[in-house]
Amino acid sequence: MMLILGIESSCDETAAAVIEDGAKVRSNVIASQIATHRRFGGVVPELASREHLEKIGVSSKRLLTTPA
Q1: Is 39 exposed, middle or buried (0-12, 13-18, 19+ CB in 10 A)?
Q2: Could you read off the pLDDT of 4-54 as tens digits, one per residue?
Q3: pLDDT, tens digit, for every residue of 3-17?
Q4: For the chain, what are the domain ranges?
Q5: What is the CA radius of gyration of the chain?
Q6: Residue 3 falls in which region: left (phi positive, over 0), alpha (psi -120 to 50) or beta
Q7: Which of 12, 15, 45, 68 has its CA 20 to 30 A from that of 60?
Q8: How many other CB atoms are there within 10 angstroms of residue 12's CB atom?
């Protein structure tokens, strides 16, 4: 069995997933920043970059403790 850890960030989301043998999603976590940016009417790059740094560790930890 091969497990793959994928980590992705877009302008306003941070996500992580564990994939088994390239086909089965074992776990998937998405941390959205919509609430953070809503009051500004769009994504604020400086806020987004800071929130990515805060959420990548939390998302990865939650991913690895989520049951398959």
Answers
A1: exposed
A2: 999 999 989 999 999 999 999 999 999 999 999 999 999 999 999 999 999
A3: 999 999 998 999 999
A4: 3-65
A5: 14
A6: beta
A7: 45
A8: 18
